[in-house]
Amino acid sequence: MKIFKNNESMGAWSNAMHKAGETIALVPTMGYFHDGHLSLMKIGREAESRMAVSIFVNPAQFGANEDLDAYPMNIERDLELAENIGADAVFMPDKEEIYPNGYQSYVTLKYLPGHLCGISRPTHFRGVATVVTKLFNIIKPDTAVFGSKDYQQLQIIKQLNKDLNFGINIVGAPIVRETDGLAMSSRNAYLRPEERESALSLSRSLEKAKKMVASGTTKSSIVKEHIREYIEGFEHTEIDYISICDPETLDDMETIDKPALLAMAVQVGRARLIDNTILVNLNICPE
Amino acid sequence: MKIFKNNESMGAWSNAMHKAGETIALVPTMGYFHDGHLSLMKIGREAESRMAVSIFVNPAQFGANEDLDAYPMNIERDLELAENIGADAVFMPDKEEIYPNGYQSYVTLKYLPGHLCGISRPTHFRGVATVVTKLFNIIKPDTAVFGSKDYQQLQIIKQLNKDLNFGINIVGAPIVRETDGLAMSSRNAYLRPEERESALSLSRSLEKAKKMVASGTTKSSIVKEHIREYIEGFEHTEIDYISICDPETLDDMETIDKPALLAMAVQVGRARLIDNTILVNLNICPE
Questions:
Q1: In this model, does residue A202 exceed pLDDT 60?
Q2: Which of A234, A275, B146, B260 is geometrically suited to a Cys-Cys bond with A201, CB 3.0 to 4.6 A?
Q3: Which of B34, B16, B36, B32 shows the shortest CA–CA distance to B24?
Q4: What is the pLDDT of residues B25-56, one digit of tens each?
Q5: Are the Cβ atoms of A159 and B129 closer than 8 angstroms?
């Protein structure tokens, strides 16, 4: 497994691979791997003949009061896991390589970031879209794999890929959960033992909502109110948003008359956790 | 010469060329070719083994009260000229191909557009950076050629290329002028006969400034005041800006103690004309 720390050597590897007739899958990450990351890498490894993993804690997608400095890291372990799963290359640039002195170009989207996490994190998706654009240009992947836990991010990258004509196959991978249902996240490391039960309120409320909708509830406000009360019943929780919306545009849906995205962000102790699922009313929209 | 109207067929041509070991020069234009465009194409033809020319009047770079609908066109003549000069491909998409329904991704720069033309045309360079990003991704050129009349645009594209890691060789081509000194521009077509003399005030004032600085004037304000009066002495002229600034950052320079960019925009009748030159104080900065 090759390790690259600068744009030029990473790009040279990609060019050499493409010249040799290989194709490249990219798995962009911020490191501190869990089984969710590993599932993305397995998908990447199957999708193309070569797989590159990037590890970069992107300062441009953290707000001023967010957890950039606390973000967990374990590079040695990450490299071992990536190698074991069959990565051919790891790209791990430092901040100055990605945002050198005088850096000033940003990629923004007009509509999709105005929903869900973008409301309380107003510059987050500009940072995501910018770094992903850079990674796409440096690594020139044929496929790129992103997790669906960050559903809004996945939608934004799909839109960006289409709008800016990258021509990359964007794959969204299913959410990977702990056995108790908690969606895997590097930020779960922030949870203290006594907060762990509270963190389960997210995945459990998704299950409750799915059942409500499957059994006929179509008013979004009723579903949202029900799970808001449920989550608020746990200690240490502070809800940022609970949204039921169109899975493509992320526009609010008042009535669940077609498959809808239920997405939420909840602060649990120091950890800002997100989770989501698709709600299907079986009477109206059979799967 | 191949003509492509959609992203996919254009991209397929580029991929086929690269696979065959060819390299591609791109000359992005808004059509209505004059000798300035042809000079870019000559440079492109020499720079790489294949040359593509794009013709697209980009709505995203026109403001609400600007001349988008009036912008001159002559596609048949353009195609003939491109073919004669040795273009291998012309890309001429329509607006819906470039900005389909639901389009929402834009590329912005933080500092460079806050100068010169960007002040009176606040969304112009966002439109330029966005369409150039798209053209780069669709056509994947090895070299791209831009004229230096649009000096700020050229600087922005160089920065964009560096910031977003396109890895393209960006070439700035010298300004091409009519025999009387008027910088060639598609917008010169707007000039009525009685405005033509006034249009010469731009290039003539550049010459005056060059002489003033070469012979020892170092205060920018004196140079600017002198040519402001000169240009205002012509009928039909309305100055947008006259700037003496750093050729890299475009930041204002009070003292011409190193090579400086003199750039100006002047409305002459219906035509908004721009021109620029580099001022060199021969005592301080010998060429």
A1: yes
A2: A234
A3: B16
A4: 999 999 999 999 999 999 999 999 999 999 99
A5: no
From-to residues of CATH 3.30.1300.10 in chain A: 186-277
CATH superfamily of B186-275: Pantoate-beta-alanine ligase, C-terminal domain (3.30.1300.10)
Residues of A in contact with B130 (CB under 8 A): 164
Query: Measuring CA to CA, how many Å separate B79 from each of A166, B38, B70, B164?
Result: 27, 12, 20, 32
pTM over 0.90: yes
The CATH code that applies to domain A186-277 is: 3.30.1300.10
The CATH 3.30.1300.10 portion of chain B extends over 186-275
The CATH number corresponding to A2-173 among 3.40.50.620, 1.10.630.10, 3.30.420.40, 3.30.465.10 equals 3.40.50.620
Cβ within 8 Å, pair B159-A104: yes
- pLDDT higher than threshold 90 for residue A54: yes
User: What pLDDT score was predicted for residue A69?
Assistant: 92
Q: Rounded to a whole number, what is the distance in Å from the CA of A233 to chain B's nearest CA?
A: 39
Strands B260-268 and B271-279: antiparallel
Strand order in the sheet with A271-279: A237-245, A260-268, A271-279
Q: Which of these, B30, B277, B282, B43, lies nearest to B177 by C-alpha position? A: B277
User: Would residue B37 show up in a list of annotated catalytic residues for this protein?
Assistant: yes
**B 167-186: CB under 8 A from A:** 167
